[in-house]
Design a protein that fits this description.
With about 290 residues, the protein is mainly α. It has helices at about 1-25, 30-50, 60-85, 85-110, 115-130, 145-165, 170-195, 210-215, 215-240, 240-250, 250-265, 270-285. The relative contact order is 0.24.
């Protein structure tokens, strides 16, 4: 069950990233983040009320709140690093953080993968990095780009580690995800407000009408991201966190395949190799 939950996480994160990437071609990234998370907060709030999740409130919610603060900060660093480029270096390094931080935490806490699973970790991590299409040659990476990417990677991995500790029950998980998303909205909304005051536009060309027209897509992005956090929490509680973290971090492969299937984008040879290695690693992890 842990492997299935983790693979579901990678599927939903990959599709959410794909959808978010499409939306940010027309709408400012911060606006996409804030609006999608507001929708998620609304839906989660209704679920918490319907399930009586408020009764699960406790100190563990601080983990959810921390994840809600760290997540948007990491995403902002990641977007900035992507803007500075090269994307072929930034993307796989950012994804790698989602593997290494939870994996390190799990090992520190005493988890020890078997030999076959360890081989799966190595193969899958290599696949994740290659699926991002790392570049060779060309202009050197700026120090600022590298620093922003490393901060983003650490943030992504920290969110996965924090959300795994946020709840141990299903109703408590709904409340934890609600708290996380409220913090996402507060942090993202503050960043958006600051950005607007500095002269950056918040609405796409076409104004509010375009945002309203894309609400279904924004809802999908926000809710898929929430669902991915939820299934990752379940994966971490039904099996080894180290294995869950690696399988959940296969989402760049999903994003690349979605772009290939829906947009006709051609995979570079290194990306195709990475996708194949990631699938082999997943098989080794689930059968080990």
């Amino acid at each position: 069950m842990s492997a299935l939950f983790a693979l579901a996480t990678s599927l939903m994160w990959g599709l959410a990233d794909f959808g978010g990437g499409l939306l940010t071609r027309r709408t400012p990234a911060l606006t996409v983040v804030v609006v999608s998370q507001v929708i998620a907060v609304t839906v989660l709030g209704a679920i918490v009320v319907a399930t009586g999740g408020w009764a699960e409130a406790g100190p563990q919610l601080w983990f959810a709140a921390a994840a809600g603060v760290v997540g948007p900060a990491a995403m902002l660093c990641f977007y900035r690093a992507l803007a500075l480029g090269p994307m072929g270096v930034v993307s796989p390094l950012g994804a790698l953080g989602g593997v290494m931080v939870p994996l390190a935490v799990a090992i520190v806490l005493g988890e020890r993968p078997g030999l076959l699973q360890l081989a799966g970790v190595v193969v899958a991590v290599a696949g994740v990095v290659l699926a991002g299409g790392p570049q060779s040659g060309g202009a050197p990476v700026q120090r600022q780009t590298l620093l922003l990417t490393l901060v983003a990677a650490l943030g992504f991995g920290s969110v996965m580690a924090l959300i795994a500790e946020a709840s141990s029950t299903l109703t408590g998980l709904f409340l934890a995800l609600f708290v996380q998303r409220v913090c996402n909205v507060v942090v993202g909304g503050t960043a958006l407000l600051v950005s607007v005051r500095r002269g950056t536009r918040a609405l796409p060309e076409g104004g509010l009408r375009v945002v309203v027209a894309t609400l279904p897509a924004l809802a999908f992005v926000g809710l898929a991201d929430v669902a991915a956090n939820g299934t990752y929490n379940l994966a971490a509680h039904h099996g080894p966190v180290a294995i869950a973290a690696v399988l959940a971090s296969l989402y760049p492969v999903v994003t690349a395949l979605a772009a290939r299937g829906l947009l006709g984008e051609r995979l570079r040879a290194v990306q195709a190799t990475g996708a194949g290695l990631a699938l082999v690693g997943a098989v080794l992890l689930t059968t080990g």
